[in-house]
Design goal:
By secondary structure, the protein is an alpha/beta fold. The protein contains 13 helices and 8 strands. The chain has an 8-stranded parallel beta barrel, surrounded by 5 helices. Strand 3, helix 4 and strand 4 form a beta-alpha-beta unit. 44% of the residues are buried. Bound molecules: 2-phosphoglycolic acid (PGA). 2-phosphoglycolic acid binds next to strand 8.
Length: 257
């Protein structure tokens, strides 16, 4: 089963729209059609940059894909400060993150909330990027498999196999995010393997073979090739290194390193 790799840059709460435009222009200068044919390359800016970057992508016919970092689960309504999935779809977003560990830890989003967001994202015909991963305490307590499988199971409750097959799931050990401490390639591969096995248990092997599983956590130009050579790893969710066009371009072109 061949799955197209997907490299996505989660900018988190960084860059104004002007800085974002400059980054995407710079990135597009580095990447060629061959790169886009080989790999899906996505940027995931803050909401305030989405419209500017959508306009740039469409105006210059760039093959870079666009994603958003979160959304509310309701399609509209009295939720001051929130953004609904159909609003993101209208900005040509193809991807929306759900369950990033920072949302789980800092904004109280549990698997139930993540599940309702995934349903909203699918309902607006976009692709969820579900993030799962254990904390350091959970790793030290030998809970890695249990945590990954319960997050995947809880977050995907009630979602049809064909929808799961089209999703992206990012295995991101919390202790490796923003710390410069990357998981060993073998541990990253094992974590992604647990994600895929859990999907197989829920929806069968065909669905598990189709779903794309990313690794995230301190992915850099210097470690991406080894990570991407692992059989269970179909891509990377990149935070810090996605804020520099040169670094992100090297990561997106991992095959040519
Ligand atoms: P990082 O972030 O690459 O800065 O570790 C990854 C993420 O949060 O997705």
């Amino acid at each position: 089963m061949s799955r197209k790799p997907i490299i996505a840059g989660n900018w988190k709460m960084n860059l104004t729209h002007l800085e974002g435009i400059a980054l995407v222009q710079n990135l597009s200068y580095h990447l060629t059609q061959d790169d886009y044919d080989a790999t899906d390359v996505a940027v995931i800016p803050p909401f305030t940059s989405l419209r500017s970057i959508q306009t740039l992508i469409e105006g210059d016919r760039l093959a870079i894909r666009l994603g958003a970092q979160s959304c509310h689960h309701e399609p509209s309504g009295a939720y001051t400060g929130e953004i609904a999935a159909p609003m993101l779809a209208a900005l040509a977003c193809e991807f929306v993150l759900a369950g990033h560990s920072e949302r789980r830890a800092l904004f109280g989003e549990d698997d139930g909330v993540v599940n309702s967001k995934i349903k909203a994202i699918l309902g607006a015909e976009m692709t969820p990027i579900l993030c799962v991963g254990e904390t350091l305490e959970e790793r030290d307590a030998d809970q890695v498999e249990a945590v990954i499988s319960s997050q995947v199971t809880g977050s995907l409750a009630g979602i049809a196999a064909e929808d799961v097959a089209g999703m992206v799931i990012a295995y991101e050990p919390v202790w490796a995010i923003g710390t410069g401490r990357t998981a060993l390639a073998s541990d990253a591969n094992d974590g992604c393997g647990v994600v895929r096995r859990t999907v197989a248990e829920l929806h069968g092997q065909d669905t598990a073979d189709a779903v794309r599983v990313q690794y995230g956590g301190s992915v850099k130009p210097g470690n991406v090739a080894e990570l991407m050579s692992q059989p269970e790893i179909d891509g990377a969710l990149v935070g810090g290194a996605s804020l520099t066009a040169d670094d992100f371009a090297v990561i997106a072109r991992f095959k040519r390193l």
